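Incident log, entry 3
Record: Peptidylprolyl isomerase (269 residues)
Problem: checksum mismatch between cached and fresh output.
Input:
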Amino acid sequence: MKLLISILMLISTTSFAQKSTEVVAQVGKKSITVEDFNKKYNEIKSQTINPPSKEQFLEDLVRYEVGLQEAEKRNLQKDPIVQERFDQEMYKALLEKDIGPRVQKIQVSDKEMAEWYAKNPELRTSHILIEFKPGATAAQIAEAKKRAVEIFEEVKKSKRPFEELVKLYSDDALSKQAGGDIGWQSRVTLVPNYYEAASNMKVGEIKGLIETQFGFHILKLTGKRSFENANKRQIRAAVFDEKRKQLFNDYFDKLKKSYTIKENKSAIK
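Fresh output:
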């Protein structure tokens, strides 16, 4: 009885080994085995709700191998663009290996969210934009600033509602029809110096001139949202990003100590 069981196990094991090493396609110098095929096909099935048929997937694998071998034949591995992409993949692979597991363990507490929000509240503003186009010359920017100063002086003296002044003077066609209102925004959705200026204002206050890449802004703070009513998902994402950034900073601060690095920052000013 024991002998019969042993024989059956041997036959079963031998059959499986033969099947797993059976070749489903030979593409030039590359053999695609049943084991290779099943492993890759199961990965695709787990990643999509509409996987290809086995026949189509086999065709995809064949095309992939044909493409790789054709690329090697043409020495594309020596092409500078290919080498740069390879370097990028190597860099990403290093980070995924060394930092990826730590990033996955990041947790964000409600307390951390509240502390972050206290320094980065959601704001609502309306603005008058005196724009200058991308690539504007110094003279064009100076002309826009002169006009902005004149408009700001008029805004400070005027007794008309800010919304009316927006419709008279603003170059922002999108917000102009809403009296300059750009809705609730956060530090992650506003230009930094615009947000900084607004965050230091009192509700109802008007301030100018704030320069951004879009032009000169005269802005009015119309609201500061409480933490209870804020976009919690966005806050959680912002805190998560800060923690992830700190992981990256710590990682490279340590890694850079193993290398001789010389920088000439004056060359990029």
